[in-house]
Amino acid sequence: MTAGVLGASVALAATVTAGTASAQPATSGQASSGASAIPLGQGYMGAGYLQDGKTFAPDTRRLQLDAQGLAAPAAANPVGIDVSHYQGTITWTSVKAAGIKFAFIKATESTTYKDPNFSANYLHAYNAGVIRGAYHFARPDLSSGASQASYFASNGGAWSADNLTLPGMLDLEGGCYGKSASAMQSWVLDFYNTYKAKTHRDVLIYTSPSWWNSCTGGWGGMSARSPLVVANWTSASSPSIPSGFPYWTFWQYTDSGSVSGISGAVDRDRFSADSSRLLALANNTP
Predict the structure, then answer these.
(1) Is 59 a catalytic residue?
(2) Which InterPro entries match (predicted)?
(3) Per-residue pLDDT tens digits for 104-163
(4) 19, 75, 117, 183: least buried by Cβ within 10 Å?
(5) Domain ranges of the chain
(6) 190 part of the active site
(7) What pTM did the predictor assign?
């Protein structure tokens, strides 16, 4: 971690509620131990948790969250979304006007797939003034972490200090891909090291308590390197977090949100601190 990122992370740690360290599995599903059945190119943030949720029911918790004010566009905890081509054409000026401060946008998967809507989404979000970051849907069964990180960095995952670009994110879900915990740890670290070498930023990690605990054994090796984006669809005031992470930086709290400018449901996300810390993370400043 660079000194700037470490400073930002330490400041974030002092301002967040870390949630329960017991890391109970997300209620939307459990991680499976086998390889993902998600076809190449069809993965998106939350797809693996829906797939693994054998008794998944439609999520009605968004109304509870809205009532608590968690979905309100407050400066204290900026709210965001994550999108891919599944959301179709997005009117980003309407998204911005609705109070959305940041967005994670799918860029790549494995070493051959680029989301067909990525370029349009990334450009139009920027032009609308939405802080955005690209994400890579991991496929540890298909190639090395280093090769996937290189592909991601060359196809949307790069970073620049322009007030509107977050570091890239590694999306880990959908099963353990036949890997042991130690092999998965090595794959993740391989991805991280290559991405850091190419962009000089620490990649964000998106995962759920159930996936991280099952597939890495609750490994603590990334807690000092990567900010955590936790998937935990719950009406609680803070999320459960994976073992090995002391606190969360972003929280995907529902998969059934609604936002002006987007047709249909969209994942909703929340930042752990205020807008100044979000900008510090984007720009790699203390």
Answers:
(1) no
(2) GH, Glyco_hydro_25, Glyco_hydro_25_AS, Glyco_hydro_fam25_subgr
(3) 999 999 999 999 999 999 999 999 999 999 999 999 999 999 999 999 999 999 999 999
(4) 75
(5) 3-12+43-53+61-283
(6) no
(7) 0.81
